[in-house]
Amino acid sequence: MKSTEELLHQIREQKNGLSFLERHEFSCPPVSLYLNDLLAEHRMETKDAIRSLGLERTYGYQMFNGTRKPTRTVLIRLAVLLGLGLDETNRLLKIGRKEILYPRIREDAAVIYAIENKLPLSRFDELMERL
Questions:
Q1: Which residue from 74, 80, 91 is spatially nearest to 113, judged by alpha carbons?
Q2: How many domains does the chain have?
Q3: Nearest alpha carbon to residue 117 among 74, 73, 80
Q4: Of 60, 66, 77, 114, which has fewest CB within 10 angstroms of its CB?
Q5: Tens of pLDDT, residues 25-83
């Protein structure tokens, strides 16, 4: 499988985009794989993420092993917990096949504020509850 950078380079060099798109297979990593990669990158254990997010244990493990799909809210809360930036959070949402953050939506604007200001999860939850 080609790296993202290699694929991007090939797309930029194409003269006929349609034939390129027909010749190549495109895939997005499974959200569970990406979630586990994020945890590893941030040196966090699955059990600690599940506990910090306040998830029911079974649902949490199913989400991380790929048998259940995480909700948009869970993905956003995980992004806040891990201190992801806005671009990283939107990438997580895209991989999870959820709508990216849109600043004209009040709740999304609050999420963006929390991400940009690196609010801890507890303060983020308070902010969202007030909305």
A1: 80
A2: 1
A3: 80
A4: 66
A5: 556 778 999 999 999 999 999 999 999 999 999 999 999 999 999 999 999 999 999 99
